[in-house]
Write a structure and sequence with these properties.
Layout: H1 2-24, H2 30-61, H3 63-70, H4 76-89, H5 96-117, E1 139-140, E2 144-145, H6 151-167, H7 184-211, H8 213-245
Antiparallel strand pairs: 1-2
Helix pairs in contact: 1-2, 1-5, 2-5, 2-8, 3-4, 6-7, 6-8, 7-8
């Protein structure tokens, strides 16, 4: 039942969208179609992902106030009340970011699965108004065959993942440099940041190379879009921070 709903609601629409794009792209360049489909989906999801990023930014700005509440010595009930009042005052929701990410996740996974499963277009999956492309060109820009493994694209996927992590907001940790006196939350935040920046890019490079150039191209496009979105969000974060501080 779930698999059937997955195919109807997500996988099949993406396959048909990719086939349609291949049919209208000059020369039937599948690589360009992969980039276009990724950009279209990311653009549609932009409002959700942007709200998620802005929600996280707002929570980061409120961290000093939340820390003061924790160190106030008030009872847990009073701390909870003051925390809720703080959230209400600044219209912040600590769970909004997670909820919006969960909404996006099935769509992103379905898009990834289209490229992961392979670009063997099965006409039985097509809608009545979608026809097989007259030409299917797997050589992206006439340079790289994205139907096979591509070390160049895999490396670029890893590099773009690194820069995406680089532009993400840095975790706020205690000013105490003694790791023994830092909280578990501080150490966990630092560890996650290090893994996102240095471990995940190698993992993405490995996965992208093991599967195909199409998956690598998807990761590159998605990461570049995310980098631009994060830079835009960082600028808004600075303005938001100035407003809240005032």
């Amino acid at each position: 039942m779930i698999h059937h709903l997955w195919d109807i609601a997500l996988y099949k629409p993406f396959v048909n969208a990719l086939v349609f794009l291949v049919s209208i792209v000059p020369g039937g360049d599948v690589g360009i179609a992969v980039i276009l489909l990724t950009l279209i989906v990311k653009t549609i999801l932009f409002p959700l992902s942007q709200r998620s990023i802005e929600g996280q930014s707002k929570m980061k700005i409120l961290e000093p106030d939340l820390k003061k509440i924790k160190e106030s010595g008030a009872s847990k009930e009073e701390q909870a009340k003051m925390t809720m009042e703080l959230y209400k005052k600044h219209n912040a929701n600590p769970f909004a970011g997670c909820l919006l990410v969960l909404i996006q996740l099935p769509i992103i996974l379905a898009l990834y699965y289209v490229f992961y499963k392979g670009l063997n277009f099965d006409s039985s999956m097509f809608y009545n108004f979608v026809h097989s492309p007259e030409k299917i060109n797997m050589n992206f820009l006439g340079l790289l065959n994205i139907g096979h493994k591509s070390l160049i694209l895999a490396i670029l996927a890893g590099v773009s993942q690194f820069f995406q992590a680089y532009f993400m907001p840095k975790p706020t940790v205690s000013s105490n440099k003694d790791s023994k006196n830092q909280s578990f939350q501080d150490n966990f935040a630092k560890s996650m940041n290090m893994q996102m920046k240095y471990v995940l890019p190698f993992f993405i490079t490995f996965i992208a190379y093991r599967i195909s150039g199409a998956v690598a191209l998807y990761w590159i496009t998605s990461n570049i879009f995310a980098i631009g979105q994060q830079i835009y969000a960082n600028k808004k974060h600075e303005k938001m921070s100035a407003i809240i501080v005032k």
